[in-house]
Every structure is written in structure tokens, then in C-alpha cells.
Amino acid sequence: MSTWLLTGGAGYIGSHVLAALRAAGHDAVVLDDLSTGLTSRLPDDVELLRHDLLEPGLPDVLTDLTRRRDVDGVVHLAAKKSVPESVAVPLDYYEHNVGGTVAMLRAAATAGIGRFVYSSSAAVYGETSAEPVAEEHPTLPTSPYGETKLAGEWAVRRYAEAEGLVWTALRYFNVAGSASAALADRGATNLLPLVMRAVDTGRPVQVFGDDWPTPDGTCLRDYVHVEDLAEAHVAAAAALLEGRSPGALNVGRNEGTSVLEVIRAVEEARGRPVPYEIVARRPGDPARVVADASRIATVLGWRASRGIAAMAG
Ligand code: WQD
Fold it and tell me: Which of 74, 135, 218, 258 is most buried, most CB within 10 Å of its CB?
């Protein structure tokens, strides 16, 4: 059994990581400012430290925690995650995502915590010239959000090299699904929740273009179930406990699913038609973003076990 400090643990992904860590026999303490996180996602017996990463007293919060409990490592998910918002208010993203990661690294070091799992994104690649995209692919993010995730990775890597931390950065592709309604992504602007909402409201979901160079003309993405993603964090934690330091790893399924295929999967799962309309392409959307997920399989022994049907259900 080990204990992990989980930042952003009251969020959509964080609450699934929390459940997976506990299911695997680990313990976790959550650090969350509840700006978007919900206490309703946390089991009663989980300790919540309600703090902002940018508080000057963060190192003291962690030092106090490590006096009371043995903390083996940090799983750092707390961040802002909207691509369009990051274009509108880029400094908020630099401040919270890069500044927050730097603050967390310093606080962890002050408290003597030497393992760091960092939540990264496929957005670090930007326009991809290879299909599927492997970790060596050039990282040229096209949004401030992607830039801050990449800068965070750099900070973690450089600090780890200088201080002898072990680390990994998990580059999530398109995360979807939930373990339960209570843990679902609220108010999401991503495709799967929007398609589900269209079934419930009868208002059509917009399909952003059907003239892309793909088999059915709609964009391809690599959708990964949030419970599979959560298990990738457990595998990462185990590797770090063994003293390994895997670096950057894609978390995807190696499979492209089109917007229309997502719609068909939801129709199948719900037994009702999905109202949709084809509209213009969304500026900035790449035609396809699919992971080469072979490194994580080799290094962590992790593979996704749930498909698009489970995410649509
Ligand atoms: C998926 C597909 C759209 C909405 C973004 C970020 C990424 C990550 C996940 C991180 C695309 C199409 C969507 C709609 C549609 N963010 N679509 N109608 O853009 O692939 O990835 O979210 O934390 O970094 O870039 O995700 O869910 O917005 O879109 O047709 O109303 O669905 O064109 O092909 P995206 P998405």
C-alpha cells in the first residue's frame, strides 16, 4: 500500500483516478481548490486539502501533511482544461497550469516527496504529421492550453533531472465515459456528452464538417474510457514505486473513431436516434488525432480494455 497526493482529485478525471488507486489498494489525499471540483465526487473517508496551488503557503501544507502521513508521491492533475478559454485568457492558463506545476514541484521537494505523475495531453503535439502519433513526434502545440501542458512537462522533466525525482507525463487523448452518473463530466463541451445531451433534449448536436479526408468525412479521434485512463495512473504509480522513471507516455487506444461512429454508438447504447446536423468545420480542428499507444503497453503493461460502446453507455 502506498499513499498519493492527488491534485484535482475532485474533478472528473481526478475522481476516477482516486477510485482506481483505492481499488488497487492504495490510499490518496486530495488537494483541490474546488473551483470546478465537487465534494460530491469524494468518498467520505478521503482527506481533502482545500487549497489553491498558487497559495504562498503550499509548501507548508505539504510539509504538514508529510508529518502526519507517509506520502509516496504526487499525481498532479489540477489544471485548467478548455482550449477556447485558453485562447481568450492565455495568462490564466500560464499562471495556473505552468505556475501551478512549478509550485507543486517546489512544494513536493520541500516536503521530501520524490515521485511525480503529471497529467498531460495530446494537445502537446498540435498538428500531427504522423498517424498514429508516437511520443517522439515533434511537439508543436497550437493552443495556449497545449503550450502550458508542454511547458509543464518540461518543468517536471528538468526538475526531475536536477533533483533525482522519478516521473511520468501521461498524454491523454480524448477522454470520455464515466464509472457512474455521480462521477460524470458536468457541463462538458466535448463530443460524447454533447451527443448524449442531444438524445435527452431532442436538440441536434452539430457535426463540425463531413468533408474531411477521412473514411466517412468526419474527424477521427482516439477516445479512451476514463476508467482505463485511471488505471493507467495506477500502473504509472506502480512503476514509480519500483524506482522507474518512464517519461512521457501516450494514453490512447491506437484507434480512430469518427464523429458519426460516436453518434452511432450512442444510438446503439440508448436505443434512440441522435438528432444531428452537419455544419461548417470548426477552425483549428485537425482531421485525425490517433495515438500510437505501444510505448505505454511496453513500459507499464497498460492497455485500454473498454471500447467506444462502453463510453457511450
Ligand atoms: C471531438 C470531435 C470535433 C463537438 C479537445 C482538446 C484536447 C482535449 C480534449 C483536454 C472533433 C467533433 C465536437 C461538437 C463535433 N482537452 N465535434 N461537434 O477538440 O478533439 O479535443 O478536448 O483536456 O486537448 O483539444 O475534443 O470533444 O471538442 O471534439 O462535431 O459539438 O468531435 O470536431 O472532431 P477535441 P472535442
Answer: 74
pTM score of the predicted model: 0.98
Partners of 170 in the beta sheet? 119, 249
Q: Which residues of 81-94 are buried (b: 16+ CB within 10 A; e: fewer)?
A: bebebbeeeeeebb
How far is ligand 1, taken at its centre, from the CA of residue 163, in Å? 37
82 CB within 6 A, ligand 1: no
Centroid of chain to Cα 110: 26
Q: How far apart are CA 303 and CA 231, in angstroms?
A: 9
Whose CA is closest to atom 34 on ligand 1? Answer: 219
pLDDT single digits (tens) 126-165: 988 778 999 999 999 999 999 999 999 999 999 999 999 9
Grid coordinates in use for 61? 501544507
Q: Which three cell numbers stand for residue 65?
A: 501533511
- Residue 177 region by backbone torsions, left for phi larger than 0, else alpha for psi between -120 and 50, else beta: left
ipTM value for the complex? 0.97
Whether ligand 1 lies within 6 angstroms of the CB of 83 is answered as yes
* 49 Cα distance to chain centroid: 21
**Which residues are bridge partners to 166 per DSSP?**
115
Catalytic residue IDs: 145
The domains located in the chain, with CATH, are 3-177+223-252 (3.40.50.720), 181-220+255-289+304-312 (3.90.25.10)
Q: Is residue 219 in contact with ligand 1, taking CB distance under 6 Å?
A: yes
